[in-house]
Every structure is written in structure tokens, then in C-alpha cells.
Amino acid sequence: MSRIVDIMKMKKITYKLFMITSLILLSFAVLIYLTLYFFLPTFYEQYKTNQLQSGMVDIIKKSEKIKLEHAKNLLDEYSKENNAIIYLQEKDGNIIYSPSFMIQGNSPPPIITGKTTPLQNEETVNAFHKSFPIQFLDEGNLIVNVFATFQPIDEASQVLVRFLPYISIIVVGIGLGSAYLYSRFITKPLLYINERAQKMANLDFSENIVVRSNDELEELSNSLNEMSNNLQKTMNDLQIANEQLKDDIERERKIETKRREFFTTVAHELKTPLTVMKGYIEGMIYNIGPYQNRDYYLEKNRKIIERTEQLVREILSMSKLEQDTFKIQAREINLLDLIETITKDLAFFASQKNIRIINKIPPDNYVFTDSDLLEKALKNIIHNAIMYSPQGETVYLALTEDSKQNQIQIQIINTGVQIKADELQQLFQPFYRIEKSRNRNTGGSGLGLYIVKQIFQSLSINYSVNNMENGIQFLVTFPER
């Protein structure tokens, strides 16, 4: 139903143009007919009169230099060309010559004399009748009379009246047919443009408007196509921006949720040692049972404070990474020098557990990144490898190069331990601890690998943790050089 309504709406312009064109053509036809009927006789009469007068004036000028005998040819020619009756008269009324009285055949016309005029019985209504003075070399002053009827134009007017029905049929037929073809020719591209424009209005940009008319309609179609393309591009950009905004909002929501969970966990992690210390201190104050040994419990409080202080430092480091004002200070770093510095700092912890650190990092390998952040992340990884490996195990440090992807990878492998597959990715969650192997007695804050994750994400460094046959591999992949 809506389709039919749309078609009817589109047909309105064809109907209007057809009616207007038809009325214009019919008006012009009627105007032309009335002009011919009313003004043609007057125009013809004026034209005929001017022709008769101007022709006779020429003959009069020429007659002054020739004889009457020689002027007869001029009079004959004038009479034939103008379909006029002409005769010469003397002043007393005698007719001396008239081409109208010529005898049939080739014999010359006789000289007619007498006072009887050939116009005495002619109809003088609606006719030209005028006398002109004329003279020849061999004749004195004569009078030339000219008579011409306007009857043919009157007959033509009557014929027009009788032919009016036929003319009307022809004019109406031609006018309506021409108006229909003209309206269809003009409105066809307009209807086509309107149909495509309706699709554009309904956000359907699948088809462009193609009009090859080399005029304003083609310019209009090109403008609509350009508008359609720009609108489609803008809508695509808006859609992409909207999707991006949704993703950003969702990401911010997740970050906010994680932040709240993190601070809740932090509060819990801080509350536990504070509660323990409070219990120790109260026991020492009131000399309750074993708490009378103040030196022992003061040392335990000192260790709790150190762990709490370490936890606060880790929180501040992580908070610094998440600040918008934080900027990475990238420079070229020699990996061998960096690893040797880290292993020297951690040598004491390795010696306590009789763990060997085997450094297989070759010299002259450089990466471009933030030195302090990378050192902190690698130190946390190697420190974890030492702290959570059994006594007498080994920590391997190796470097591999991928020539196809132009990447450098560092492997940190600690032997003698494995982690369940479902717990590997949870290692990077804040305060996540593996049962038995990871607890507060190890001295960790629970944020070490979480900070590693934050640092690597800030530096665009890929990482992964995998179980090996006799150990755990931590793989660090640097971006393309």
C-alpha cells in the first residue's frame, strides 16, 4: 500500500508537467489560429496595397523616358504579377489602353477608345481602386487606373473557419502527444532521482544515482551521490567511534571494578599484619603468657613492618604506572649488563637456598625501552624463580632471536617445580597465592607478578608462563627492533 502511495506521489510531477505543457501548447495553437483569422486579412490587405502602389510608382518613373508603345510591356507584366485590372485614360475619360482587353492569341491588344470603363459593373467593395497621373514621351498627361480585389484572403478566412474542427483535432492530438512525451522525458530522471533519494533518506546507500544528461540533473545526481558517500562515511565513523566508546566505557568499568577489588584486597592485606602486630603489642604490654619475651615478639613485629613497608612500596609503584602523567623514559639498553646487575643483587637470596644462576645471555644485544621499569620487572621474575624453587635447583637465563619477525626473547627457567595449568594465568592477579608454595612466610607482598604484568603492558612487551618437563619457563618477547 505504501509503495502505491509513493508511486502516486511520484506521478504527480508528471501529471502537473503534462497538464501545464498541454495548456501551453493548446493556448499557443488557439492564439495562432485567432491571429490568422483576425489579423491575416488586414495584414494581407496592407501588404497588397503597398505592393500595388510601389509597383505603379516604379512604372510612372520609367514612363517619363519611354513611349507608350514601349510601356505596354510594363503594364502587362504589372497586371499579371498583381492580378490587377489596369487601363489608361485621357483627361476626358477616353480609354486608350488596357491589358485586360487583350484579344486571345498573340496579336497585340487594340487601342481602345471611348469613355466606357471596364469597372463600371465590377464590385468595388473590399478592393483596391486608385488612379495615378502618368505621362509618356509621345503622350501628354494621362491617368492610369488600377483595380485589384481582396477576395482571395476573404475566401481563405472562410476556409479557416470550415477547417477549424479538423485543425482542432490535429492540434489537440499533436499537443497532447507532445506534452505526454515531453513530460515523460523530463520527469523520468526526476522520478529516478527521487526514488534513489528516498532510499538514501532510509539510510540505504547501496546504489548510486546515475544520470547522464550533461546538465543540472546530472550535477544534482552527482551532488546527491557525494552527499550519500559523505553521509555513509560519517555514519561509519560514528559507528566506529560509538563502538570504541562502548569498549572504552566497558574497559573503564572493568578497570574501576578491578580497582575497587584491588583496594579491598589491599585493605585486607594491610589489616591482617596490623591486627597481628596489635595482638603482639597488647600481649607485651600486659605481660600475657609467651608475650613476656619482648625481644622475640619485637623482632617479629619488625619483620611484619618490613613486609608491610614492602607492600606499600609495591602499591605506590603500581599506582605510579597507572597515572596518566606517567611517561616512559626509553633508551637503548644492553641486556647482558642489565641481567648481570640483577643477578648480583639477587645472589644473596640464591646462596641461601643453594640455587645456581646460569646466565647464557650473549653480549651486544640491545633493546630500546625504559631501563628502570624493565629492571624492576625482570628482577621480580628472577626473584620469584629463586624464592619458589626447591633447595639446590637451577635458574637458567637464556636469549633467543627470531630473525623472521626480528624479535628478541629472554627465557627465565627455574627447575624442580611446576604449577597447575589452571593456575598459571592467575599468577598475575594481585595477592593471588598458590596453596602451600606461596604464602606470607616466603616474604612476598603478593603484588610482584601483578606489577610485572603492569610494566610489560606499559612497555608493549609480550610475556607468557609455561610448564616444562622439569620446571617453569617465563618467556619475555620484546617488540620488533
Task: Describe the 3D structure.
The structure is a single chain. The chain has helices at about 1-65, 70-80, 150-200, 215-285, 295-320, 335-345, 345-350, 370-385, 450-460; strands at about 85-90, 95, 125-135, 140-150, 330-335, 355-360, 365-370, 395-400, 405-415, 460-470, 470-475. It has about 475 residues and is an alpha+beta fold. The strands form three sheets. A five-stranded mixed β-sheet has the order 6-8-9-11-10. Strand 3 (about 125-135) and strand 4 form a beta hairpin. Helix 1 packs antiparallel against helix 3 and helix 4 (about 215-285) runs antiparallel to helix 5. The longest helix is centred in the middle third of the chain and has 70 residues, at about 215-285. It starts with a helix and ends with a strand. The model is unreliable at about 1-10, about 100-125 and about 435-440 (pLDDT under 50).
Key features of this structure:
481 residues, alpha+beta, five-stranded mixed sheet, four-stranded antiparallel sheet, 9 helices, 11 strands, 57% helix, 15% strand, disordered N terminus
Distance between the termini: 66 Å
> Strand order, biggest sheet?
6-8-9-11-10
Q: Provide the gyration radius in Å.
A: 60 Å
Describe the largest sheet: 5 strands, mixed
- The secondary-structure element order is HHEEEEHHHEHHEEHEEHEE
Count every beta strand, where a strand is a DSSP E run of 2 or more residues. Answer: 11
Helix content: 55-70%
Shape by Cα distribution:
rod-shaped
What fraction of residues sit in β-strands? 15-25%
> Would you tell me the structural class of the helices and strands?
alpha+beta
Number of helices: 9
Poorly predicted parts: 1-10, 101-124, 436-441
- Average per-residue pLDDT, rounded, comes to 77
